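Researcher: Structure for this, please.
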Amino acid sequence: MSRSSRPGESPRSDAVSGTSGTSGIDADESFDADDTEDADDTEDGALADSQITVVVADDHPMWRDAVARDLLDAGFVVVGTAADGPSAIRRVKATTPDVLVLDLNLPGVHGVEVCAQLAAEEIPTKILILSVSGERQDVLDAVKAGASGYLVKSAAREDFLEAVRRTARGRAVFTPGLAGLVLGEFRRMQNAATATSQTPQLTDRETEVLKLVATGMSYKDIASALFISHRTVQNHVQNTLGKLQMHNRVELVRYAISKGLHRD
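Model: Predicted structure, token format:
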């Protein structure tokens, strides 16, 4: 991104708005400029920047082009951009990038619905929200729909780039303050479910399907492994969602992992 200010925002010195005090953090770990990993100093098995593919979706052309340019300058592979929700979904389905950098307020299909549609179709791309909004409901809606992380657009350039790296590695990355909000909400939901009912009684088959969902297997692979139809797997998942009062596969995986089912 160029070092000029964004339309509708105050001038900043860094590409993704170099304001201080907004460095991205993991859900369980913070980082700052001194803690940022070098592009070539990756974790074992982690993708180098030159291997990470990204799609950028934002309805403002100057911002969209600037974000894409920052990613390219840092060595990432930008495989597409999109100006609206339907285009974002098409680009991701066509290229299956490692990361989708997604604005929420997209025309055509809102960013939250983009997350939900990609999750419903089991697209493996991880989604990093980059939005002007840090509102509680926007953050929670995005995460519940399948977003892996959430940064506000006041994040510094290096923090944004590091967030893309961590998102590609499967880490949950949030602007400071938002991680606690998300974790607190999921704890509240879990406590509320516990208070209103005992642990939901899943059938043996539902539990078996849930364990395989938690390992990352697709519905097709689960059907093959259990010698049942794809439709039967979907029915078991829908029944489990209803019993657990959850909305999508992402929440199911989190639940299963919290119960240790992925290790059984």
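Researcher: Any notable elements?
Model: The CA atoms of residues 59 and 83 lie 4 Å apart. The chain has a mean pLDDT of 78.
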